Amino acid sequence: MLRRLIVALLVLGALALLTISFRSPTSGVLHDVQGTGASILRPFQIAAERVARPFRDAYGYFDGLASAKSENTKLRRELRDWRAQATANAAGSRRAAELEKLLAYETGPTYPTNYRPVNTSVISFPTGPFSQQVAIAAGSSSGIGINTPVVSADGLVGRVTNVVSSTAVVTLLTDPDSAVAARDLTTGVSGLIRHGPGSTLILDQVSKQLRVHKGDLIVTQGTRDRRYPDLYPYGIPIGRVISVGTSDIASYLTVQVAPFASLASLDSVAALVVTKRAAKLP
After folding, report:
1. How much is the pTM?
2. Most C-beta atoms within 10 A of its C-beta, which of 34, 181, 262, 276?
């Protein structure tokens, strides 16, 4: 009971002081007492402010740093997600464009007869400078076999040299052991396409008495002698002649060819599978 009485008196006293403070003029005894008290406490207030400021600043710094790190992490995550999405979109757009080009080639006049395309994607690339093979995501279950020709929308890529049910290995034109019977579509000169310097090819075994010109189109020779059927059908684009040279000690021209197919950055390709309508040679 006594405690409640004391609390009530304190509350009433506080209310009275507040009322007097609000109603009192800007001068007077009470005002002087308030001013004196504020003056006495001012040095302690300034000291407390100076002591507390470093701690308050430190708290604000670390709180801001934590917020900045959190925001930075969020932004990095969002940037990574956007980059992944952009990469996926770019890859999808590129593959769609490649497939459109393949479709245009397969429905065009230069597509070889008696062959059906198995359109697929490249799933692995050369593992080193001496490796000239890629893997594709189609195999024997799709009709692909050893020596099946493989093309891109731009031109000849190579041939299948190993195959299982769902995948196959393609040896590229730039492999040192590769040799493709070819001809100059402008002059009719025949030769063998082999690996050349860098990423180029050479049209080998072309006599110096024959004529090949810079800019000539080189295509697959196809079967010209029924006793020796070629692995590739006639007319698949291979590349374009970029230089022709001679040597006094050589029997053949030095014909350098730039391949049409981008062999170092293949995406979508087509394996050319012989159809049942293909004629058998006697």
Report:
1. 0.65
2. 181
